[in-house]
Amino acid sequence: xxxxxxxxxxxxxxxxxxxDRYLTALTADGRRIEILCKNARRGKKQNPAARQFCYSEFxxxxxxxxxxxxxxxxxxxFFPLTQDIERYALxxxxxxxxxxxxxxxxxxxxxxxxxxxxxxxxxxGGREPTLVKAAFEWRVMxxxxxxxxxxxxxxxxxxxxxxxxxxxxxxGTAADGVCAERVGGYERLADSALRALTHVLTCxxxxxxxxxxxxxxxxxxxxxxxxxxxxxxxxxFDSLAFxxxxxxxx
Length: 250
Hints:
This protein has helices at residues 85-101, 109-124, 129-146, 177-183, 191-202, 215-233, 238-246; strands spanning 2-16, 20-27, 32-37, 54-63, 66-77, 149-153, 165-168, 173-175, 187-189. The protein is of the alpha+beta class and 250 residues long. It has two domains: 2-77, CATH 2.40.50.140; 80-246, Recombination protein O, C-terminal domain (de novo design (two linked rop proteins)), CATH 1.20.1440.120. The protein has a five-stranded mixed β-barrel. Strands 6-8-7-9 form a four-stranded mixed beta sheet. A hairpin with a 3-residue loop joins strand 1 (2-16) and strand 2. Helix 1 (85-101) runs antiparallel to helix 2 and helix 3 (129-146) runs parallel beside helix 6. One of its GO terms (biological process) is DNA recombination. This is DNA repair protein RecO. Keywords: DNA damage, DNA recombination, DNA repair. Residues 1-78 form the DNA replication/recombination mediator RecO N-terminal domain. InterPro entries: ARFGAP/RecO, DNA_rep/recomb_RecO_N, NA-bd_OB-fold, RecO, RecO_C.
């Protein structure tokens, strides 16, 4: 049995047996792992660092790809998010989406960076939750092999020199006005929504949430981001339904 030291963010907890708990975690290098926390629900054996939304330094026993907790030291807790039902519900959705895109074997450090910065933005209250959500959706999909293509017209292959630009959630491509009208299924992007989307897809991962958007452009950017995730992953998320039940209507 090997000993492994790593940093990871707790995504989800599932009780097991009478006293144990499994913690799904996202490592700093972007892998999804399951950690068995023995006696995690028994009095003094509880470790507050091995919990959901805690970014911690773990010492684990590893055998055959299975991990058992030895020690965990807290680096940062996002516990304040649990005090606001809307932000907590949104954090649960972002964590579930990251978990769905991460794998046990493939490194994707951007996943962890994006999620940590999204949780920090929600925790601080400095960014609008709906924009944090949409920015995370667009960029995490791009980092996971589902990047939308805005480099030119996806129909004729020519460059789009200036707005208006149209976009298809299903095709994942942009189009010019003539092609968009000819083939259908494309929606005209508001100029500011296009600028925000370009920023989110191309900037440094630590600056993904550093933008603002208002009005109809914000609504379009957010609506299309969620639709893009649901369509290209071909599945829904229980945590998203929960978030929708507590978030104010847009």
